[in-house]
Write a structure and sequence with these properties.
About 45% of the residues lie in helices and about 10% in strands. The chain has about 100 residues and is an alpha+beta fold.
């Protein structure tokens, strides 16, 4: 299993400034990215907030999916061909492969 080489730690989305940061140091968190277009009057504010939440969840989602695939490789669960293919594609996309 390939390790994620991005910013380590749990990520947090801040709706006030639309930043995604690590939760490590409260006074000086590491900024991972900014979700653009935080104008509440442009009609896509809720979409921008949803994008921020999914980005912040990405490392945990990757880790969970890798764990599920590892459980399948060991024979503890069976996902089926379609789910396995989708999971593999998603993991490779997340890892830049």
């Amino acid at each position: 299993m390939t390790d994620f080489k991005g910013t380590k730690g749990s990520w947090n989305f801040n709706k006030d400034d639309f930043s995604v940061t690590t939760k490590g140091d409260y006074k000086n968190p590491t900024e991972v990215c900014h979700v653009m277009d935080n104008n509440p009057y442009d009609g896509v504010y809720e979409e921008d907030v949803a994008n921020g939440h999914i980005i912040a969840a990405a490392p945990e989602l990757l880790e969970a999916l890798q764990h599920i695939m590892e459980m399948q490789l060991r024979g503890f669960i069976v996902l089926g061909e379609k789910a396995t293919a989708k999971a593999t594609l998603a993991i490779n996309k997340a890892l830049g492969q």
